[in-house]
Specification:
alpha+beta; 2 domains; 62% helix
Length: 215
């Protein structure tokens, strides 16, 4: 069975150990490279730009909530803070408050980037502006008449939310590459991700049938 090393006393422990058998510590690294924390290494997976775009299209933008959950979960493992990934993702459904959590989300990414030695141009304020516009345009669309105008507005909203995810994920991907310096894997599809894809496809089917039967 693979082993892991305590970064406090250098004792070798079994992979499934939660506490060091020698000192009781909870900080572990990989044998030969104790600076890389096992928990962080397991959390470090990449989400590609094309994956964000495709899944955002398939889910009609709902992927944003799941993306927030995934990245908050990664940040929780990396920062060792308790972030409550599910609840922090769902705060986007709370008017106003979700933007504060988004600001915090990108601020944590920015702090990690600066700590690892590289600057980023995508700031928490810019993220709030992009998503804030997305929300405002969504409210405007409820009073909009005309298929062409509604479609154009929704395309703009889609670009705003996808741009936010791509720029933020780019910071996280760069951070993993900078700090770990290993061949990172793309994130495998999770059951929750499959569920939101099913919901998104169901929505598109409903929309298509609605247009077909009303035309």
């Amino acid at each position: 069975m693979p082993e892991k090393i305590c970064t406090i006393c250098s004792q070798i422990n079994q992979t499934n150990a939660n506490y060091c058998s020698a000192c009781g510590g909870q900080s572990f690294g990989l044998p030969g490279n104790p600076q890389i924390d096992v928990g962080v290494a397991n959390a470090a997976v990449l989400i590609s730009t094309h994956r964000i775009i495709v899944l955002s299209v398939v889910t009609s933008g709902m992927y944003f909530l799941y993306w927030l959950f995934i990245t908050w979960r990664q940040l929780q493992s990396e920062t060792r803070d308790v972030h409550y990934p599910v609840w922090h993702a769902l705060t986007m459904l709370v008017p106003g408050y979700g933007l504060f959590r988004l600001h915090k989300h990108v601020a944590v990414l920015q702090e990690l980037a600066l700590k690892s030695g590289f600057e980023v141009s995508f700031t928490p304020g810019l993220a709030v502006i992009l998503v804030g516009l997305y929300i405002v345009l969504g409210l405007v669309s409820t009073n909009l008449v005309g298929f062409a105008a509604l479609m154009a507005l929704n395309i703009i909203r889609f670009l705003l939310i996808v741009t936010t995810m791509i720029l933020a994920q780019g910071i996280l991907n760069s951070y993993w590459g900078k700090t770990l310096g290993t061949s990172l894997q793309n994130m495998p599809f999770e059951s929750g991700e499959r569920a939101i894809i099913f919901i998104g496809l169901s929505y598109w089917l409903y929309l298509f049938l609605s247009i077909f039967y009303t035309s």
